[in-house]
Structure formats: C-alpha cells, structure tokens
Amino acid sequence: MLLGASAGSDLLRALIQGTPAGTVYALLALGLVLTYKTSGVFNLALGAQAYVSAALYFQARVTWGWGIVPSLLVSVFLLAPAIGWVLERFVFRHLRTASAVAKLVVTIGLAVALPALFDLVVGFQSIAGQTPVGIVPGGATVFYDPFGVYALSRNELTAVAVAALAMAGLAGLFRYTTVGLHMRAVVESPRMTELNGIRADRVSSFSWALSSFFAGLAGVLIAPRFNTLAAPDFFNLVVIAVAAAAIGMLVSLPRTLAGGLGLGLLIAVFQTFLPRWSDSWPWLNTVRQNITPAMPFVVLFAVLVFWPAIRRSRAASDPLAGVDPPPPALASLSRSRGLTVATRAFAVVFLTITGLTVFFRADASWTFVVTQAVILSLIFLSITVITGLAGEISLCQGTFAAVGAFASFQLVNHMGMSVLVAALVGAVIASAVGALLSLPVLRLGGIWLSIATLAFAYFFDSVMVKFSWVGGGQKALEEGTRLPRPTLGPFNMNDNRTFLVLSIVLLVVVAFAVVRIREGTIGQTLRALRGSELGAQSIGISPARARVTAFAISAFIAGLGGALLAIHQQNVNYSSNFSPFASLFWLVLVVSLGARTVEGAMQAGAAFGLFDAVLLKGAIFGWILRSPERIPSFFPLSPTWTYVLFGLGALQFARHPEGLVESGKRRSTEKVEQWWAARHQGVEPAEQAAEPAEPGVIS
Amino acid sequence: MTDVPLLRARGITKAFSGIMAVQHVDAVVAEGERVGLIGPNGAGKTTFFNCLLGVIPTDQGVVEIDGVDVSGLPVHHRSKRGIGRTFQRIELFAEATVREHLLIAERTRRADGRLWKDLIGRGRPTVDEIERCDRILELLGLVELAEQPSEHLSLGQGRLLEVGRALMTEPRLLLLDEPSSGLDHEETVDLARTLRDAQADRGFAVLLVEHDVEFVADFTDRCLVLDAGKLIAEGPTGQVLASDAVREAYLGTAGAAS
Ligand SMILES: Nc1ncnc2c1ncn2[C@@H]1O[C@H](COP(=O)(O)OP(=O)(O)OP(=O)(O)O)[C@@H](O)[C@H]1O
Ligand SMILES: [Mg+2]
C-alpha cells in the first residue's frame, strides 16, 4: 500500500545511491575496529584524521595548484599513516594500561585538537560553499547510469572502487603477509599475541598507521559529498563508523564492513521512501527533513540500547583486559588536609579580589566575559558530578544545558512564566531528561555509555532542536530564541553587574551543594561503585539507582546553567553554545584541568570564558606592560589555539586523571613536604627552618 | 516442611561457552550453620557463589532465601535479604579508608540516604553509625588501621576488611570465598580465629569455600564437595574429608601439592 508500483526500481535506485557512502563508512569503521582490537583504543579522533587528509588534499589541489597524484600521495599515503604512527608511538603506547574510558577521553581531546592544529599549521581555511574536489578529473560532472535508475557521478564510482580495493588489500594483507597474520591474530584474540611472542608494539604501530590510512582515504573519498570542507562533518562520519563498528560488535571485521555498507543503504532507502510515508502521516515531516543527518545516531542509539549482545559484551569491553594488569581507578582523590585548606583559602582570596576588581573597575565587555565564565563554571559542575563523582564520561552535557535553556525559553514565551522560575523548571525538565536517558544507557556501562550519550547529543542536535516546541521552529529562526533578563525585587538584572552577582551567588550555592553531595551518602555510594561495582553490590548498593541519581543531578545542574547562560546572552544561541561539539570540548576542558574537584570546574570555566580574551587577545600583556598599545603585534592569536591547547591537555588525562592543576599541586606539596622533612632531619640542631611552606602549596 | 531454611539452592546449573562450570547443584544452609564448600581448582565454587548471589545469571535452578524465590532478583536485593560475601580476588573500594568502607555499608543498610539530607549536611555519619563501625573494627582487630586508605592494607587485612564490610550489613549468611588464599600460615590461623570469634559473637551462618583443609575441618560442621561442577559428596565435615571419593577428587591433588 505504501509502496507504489515503482517501488522495485525505487528500491534499486536507493541501493545504488547508498552504495558509495556505505563503502566509505565501512572503510572508516574498519579503521576504528583495527585500532580498537590491537590497542584497546576506541579512536573517536578518526574523523579528525580523515578531515586532516581531506583538507590537505584540498589545500594542495586548490590553493597550491598541485596535481592529483602528488596531492594524493602527500595527504593520504604520507600524512595519514604518519599521523597514525605518531599517535601510537607517542601517545597510546604509553597508555596501554590506562582504562578504556581514559583512552576514550584522550581520543576526544585529539578529535578537538587535530583539526585545529592542522588549520593553524597549514593555514587552512574552509571556504563556505566551495565543494571539495574529488580524486579523478571531472568527478562531479561525468555521470554513469548502468541500470537506468540512478546516475552515479564519477566521484562516487571512484569511491566505491577505491574503497573496495582497499578492503581487498586488507584481506590480502591478512592472508599473505606476516605482519597481517600477526595483526589478525591480535584482532581475533589479544591474549594470543603475548603468548606467541608476537611483537605487540610493532603490530599496533602498523595497525595505527593502516587505520589512519583508511581514515585519510575515506576522508578524501567522501569529501566531495559535502558543500564545504568542515571538521564537524567529519566528526559526524566517525559517529557513523561507530554505529557500523557497533553492529560488528567491535570484533568481526566482515560484520563491521557489512554494517557500514548497510548503514549507507539504509539511509538512502529512508531518504527515498520517507517522503511517501510522511504524506500519510504528516507528523513524520519534521522527522523526515532531518532523518538523513540523524539516521546514524538513531541507528547507533538503537543498536546500543536494543542489541542484547552489546550489553553482554560489557565485561569484555576492553579487549586487553586479560593481557594487562587491571587499570588503575579513574582517579584517586585523597588530598592531604593541608592542601585542601590551602586550596580553599586561596580560592576565597582570589575570587574576592577578582570579583571586586571586575565589579568596580571592569567595563561592560569584561563584565560580560567574566559573567560568562562564572556561568560556565556552574555548568561544568555538572561534569564534576557525572564524571568526577560517578566516574561516567557523558558526552551530552551540552544537550542537557540546551534542554534547560530551551525549556525556559518556551515557558517564558508561551506561558508567561517569570524568567527565574522558568530557569528552575527548565533545570527540573533537564534533570528528568537526564534520568530518562540514563535508564537505557546505564546498562551499557563504560565506553558504550559514552558513545550512547554522544548519539543522543547528535540526535537532539539534528532532530529535536528542529521541532517548534523545542527550538521554536520558524519563528525562532527569524526572531531568535529570546529570553529576557529577570527582575528580582529591587534588583534589575538588565544591569550586567547585578546579573553577575546573581550568577556568582548561584555558582556558590551549586558548588556548595556539590561538595555536600560528594561528602554525603550519594557521593560515598558513587565512590564505592567507582571503586568496585561488585563490592558495592555485595553490600546492597543498587548501581542503577545511584547512577540514575547522578545523571539526574548532573543534568539538573547543566540545565540550570544552560538556562542562565541563555538569560545572560538574552538568547539561547543553541548552535554556538550547546552543540554536540561544545559538549565534547567542555568535557575535554574539565577533565584536563580536574574533574574531581569543584575547583577544577571553576578553573575550566575561567579558562573557557577568559582564555580568549586574556591570553589570545593579549590583554594580559596589556596589563603587565600597563598599556593596551604595547601588546605585541602578533596578538590577537587565533582562537583556534584554545582547541589545540586543551585538546592536547586531555592527553594528560590518562596519566593524571585527577587533572593537570591538581596533579601539579600535589607534586609541589610533596616537594615542599620533602624539603621540609629533609631540612628538619638534616639540620636538626639549627632551628631556623621556619619559613612557611604555604607559597609552594598554593602555586 | 515447617522448617524453612535460610538458603536453599536447587539444581543450579551454569555453563560458560560449553564448559559446564556448575551442574545441578543443590545446597541448603540453615540459620547459624557453618558449612564448608570444597573442591579442586576450577570445580565451580566461585561460580556457584556468583549464581547464589545473582552476579551472573544461572542457566537453570532456583535460589530461595527464607523460602522466597529470589532467582530473578539483582545482587543488591539478595544482599539486602541477608546474604553477605567476600571475594576471592578482593574487591575493596579504591580511595576509601577502612572506616569509610564500613560506614558506607552501614548507611546502605539503613537505606536513609536522601538527596535532601545530603544537601542540608546530614549526609555525614552519625554518632550511632560510628559506634557500630567501631564495634566491628574492634571485633576484627582493625582499630589501628581505621584511617588507612584501603590501598595501604596487606592482603590479609584487606580480606578482614571485606569481612567487616559484609558484617556491617548484618548478614544472616556470609559467603566466604577462599579467605586464606594468598596468606601465609600464621595469617591464616589469625584470620580463622578472628572469623570464629566474629561468628560466635554474631551467630550468622557461614558458607566457606577454602582450600586449607585444616581451616575447613576446624571451622565447619558440614561440608559439600564439588568436582568438575558436580556435587560429589556431602555430610559432616570429618566424614567427608575422610571419604575416599573426596580424597581421590580433591585431596589427591591438593595433598600431593602440599
Ligand atoms: N567468566 C567466565 N567465563 C568463562 N569461563 C569461566 C568464567 N568463570 C569461570 N569460568 C570457568 O568455570 C570453571 C569454574 O570456575 P570457578 O572460578 O567457579 O572455579 P573455582 O572452584 O572457584 O576455582 P578456584 O579454586 O581456582 O577458585 C572453570 O573452568 C573456569 O575456567
Ligand atoms: Mg574460586
């Protein structure tokens, strides 16, 4: 009934149409599985690697005017494997014993940093609307129509052919070469390697180079499908690859391949048939308009949540678990008493001075920036709860914040609710969304949980936001998603300083609450779970309940902060504030500075809000040199540096899970203590070692 | 039939990809009873424990606590019904001190952790809780270690802490999985003594998995023997340990080793 008479040829057309994308997805998915199986790294940076190759190819062809072959050689055959090799050799080889989740965070850092680093080094700038070139002449203009139903462009045909060739090459490699045999041995059973004396290092170096090569190839092949060469599109690609890999259960290469191809076809089929279905069911319209971009996330989410085997694979989610000693706990946070006191004292003094300075001296733009930093600190406390306390890496905190912001936008505009009340209700709604999301997701645990939250973030981004009851629909496109500033008794928050005070008050209240929760029953329960889930269950702790609570609290905080941010900017500004990529960056920022402490969240907030203004624009030199004219001329630096620095900062996460600042402080505390002890033992009689140890502690 | 046992397991069966780890094992433990569970390595003892508690799903079989079928319930529900356990490979909470281990167990037992209580600062341990915790610390001789993080404990101390953590939940049945493994003779004797004292003090039932025959003979009244997943003998400990079947299956190997 739904399929008309021409359904057969339509289906054929959809299948042909979906094949090029499908083969490229399969290629990427294979790259993902290769590194996962040989080094236990679930490489979310694969999309970034694909981007770098595609961008270099584009730059060489278009900007530098090179020919096809040299451009291809440099970008795909040289740069791509080199990146893979370097990543393995200098980053992941040292993380063999880190937990799978810690490695995931490192790859997220790379996903943020690599494209930015490339853009800076090569001076690459994507030009909006300029379609990337393919790897054959006339790729976009010559068409072939073998079955008379759909014309494939030469680019698309090439993509299919090259991807198929690459896969055949992989099969041949596995069959006929020593390193391939070894690789297959490792892929099939990581334990075998150690037993058979296969040089694991060599195998994993090679796998990384190969995986990166596949990524680069996929990037160059798929680039012509995009209007503009932009890193986020390539990150989306990796999400599709993850879905394919999930279908292959991260173990079987053939199934992964089938998964990638299948996804490509599925998307095309939906694209073909959905318009008809939505004639019958109008509500499908909004879904239809966004189904193409959302498809992989929907599939990924569905696979994760409904595919029972994934849930069962939970215990086996780290392929190296049997080989290496058990990974250390995500972080240890046994601070010495002195350090805690010193930190708190320093924080109070520092915040007071900064607060007073800003309040009395700063102009409007500085007040704006500082308020932003305060609100972001508040949002980041949500990461302190979910990652620091509960030990789960959630990649959809931005989405929770967006839910809070949109909810208060809707409540204020449609129900005439007072803004602050709306912000609270918005936070409650976000909290409910967080709890609901956590129910199916929690059974996954570990890495899959993070991936599922990522899928959710993208789903929200590409489908939910478009609904008018969420994002405001057409009207919002024209007028923006406006939110007014509140008035609270005699305080009119249209005044930026008054609003700053409100934000600080809320931040302090939330920070206080987080500390209480951490020290109270919920925090202790979560800590027990993090320490040993089996042990915790054996004394009657319900893991699901504790974690749902953590998700709800975290989403509440994020929602409140999101609403506050929207009120501050007087607009939700979804795409610049809360996109999935923002969630990733937030996570990277907070964990690299310290996810375990309230202080870490505040430093991250300050870094996020102020880094650009203070460091990159060179304002700090203006202050030091006491005149804005004397700021060195190479300022302002590109804001891209922020991504590079914090992305690379996340590399430290696996080794210093407590965060850079925290570990630095602990090290200096230890040094001071040692020095103190040495001094007291060595120079016992001379009792003049009375200098205070405090300065070292604070630094 | 009027007399419902504390724990009854019937026909517990579990296979791991073809290997029958546990096959149709029945077991009954009465209130306050001390029962041993012995068998050579890989006999399926730990797997049997895990089935009793629901850590892994069983393929077949029924577990009853106080005559109530708990087969479908998750681990924490079963422990709330009075079954505590220790682990062969210890499962302590990283980053927590000895006292904190006990306090969190106590708090969970009371089930009064509420968000609002944490928020108004009533999440901290009460005097009453600290007292109960101190009593257990004393019972197990861990008082000096109370403020030590669990990472600093020796294996023996860690095992004691696991016992203490389980005791805080006031179990009526304690499953002990090889408490002496990794300990030297002296430590084992100490541990056995402490366990006996604790058991005498609290009167909980014990199901003890143990390779140390002396320990088993000393501590338990009744004994089950598993071999290759099957229950091959059951009876008063003295008799069972002396029986030929057991010697052949179990002591044969263990005896040769020691
Ligand atoms: N998670 C698992 N996956 C696959 N096989 C398992 C698993 N756990 C146990 N086994 C197998 O089941 C059998 C029983 O193991 P179990 O650990 O229960 O023995 P055990 O009696 O406790 O031995 P031990 O005295 O060494 O502790 C063994 O053959 C073991 O290899
Ligand atoms: Mg065992």
Bound molecules: adenosine-5'-triphosphate, magnesium ion
Compute the gyration radius of chain A: what is it? 26 Å
The CATH superfamily of the largest domain in chain B turns out to be: P-loop containing nucleotide triphosphate hydrolases
* Beta-strand proportion of chain B: 15-25%
Examine the coordinates and then state which fold CATH places here, giving the name of the CATH topology of the largest domain in chain B. Rossmann fold
What CATH calls the topology of the largest domain in chain A is ABC transporter involved in vitamin B12 uptake, BtuC
Helix content of chain A: over 70%
Mind telling me the CATH class of the largest domain in chain A? Mainly Alpha
Helical percentage of chain B: 40-55%
Distance between the termini of chain A: 73 Å
Architecture (CATH level 2) name of the largest domain in chain A: Orthogonal Bundle
Backbone structural class of chain B: alpha/beta
As a whole number of angstroms, the C-alpha radius of gyration of chain B is: 19 Å
Strand order of the largest sheet of chain A: 1-2
Shape of chain B: globular
Determine the mean pLDDT of chain A. Answer: 80
Q: Give the chain pair forming the largest contact, with residue counts.
A: A-B, 31 and 44 residues
Sheet with most strands of chain B:
6 strands, mixed
* Shape by Cα distribution of chain A: globular
**How many helical elements of chain B?**
10
Overall description:
Chain A is mainly alpha-helical. Helices cover 72% and strands 1% of the residues of chain A. Chain A contains 30 helices and four strands. In chain A, strands 1-2 form a two-stranded antiparallel sheet. Chain B has 258 residues and is an alpha/beta fold. Chain B has two domains: 7-91 and 171-257, P-loop containing nucleotide triphosphate hydrolases (Rossmann fold); 93-152, no CATH class. Chain B contains ten helices and ten strands. Chain B has helices at residues 45-53, 75-80, 98-110, 115-119, 127-140, 155-168, 185-202, 213-219, 237-242, 244-257; strands at residues 7-16, 19-29, 34-38, 60-65, 68-69, 83-85, 173-177, 205-209, 222-227, 230-236. In chain B, helix 3 crosses helix 5 (127-140). Chain A binds chain B through residues 329, 332-334, 513, 516-517, 519-525, 527-528, 530-532, 534-543, 549, 553, and chain B through 53, 55, 74-76, 79-80, 84-85, 87, 91-96, 100-101, 103-105, 107-109, 112-115, 117-124, 149-151, 162, 165-166, 168-169. Bound molecules: adenosine-5'-triphosphate and magnesium ion. Adenosine-5'-triphosphate is lined by residues 16, 19, 21, 39, 41-47, 88 of chain B.
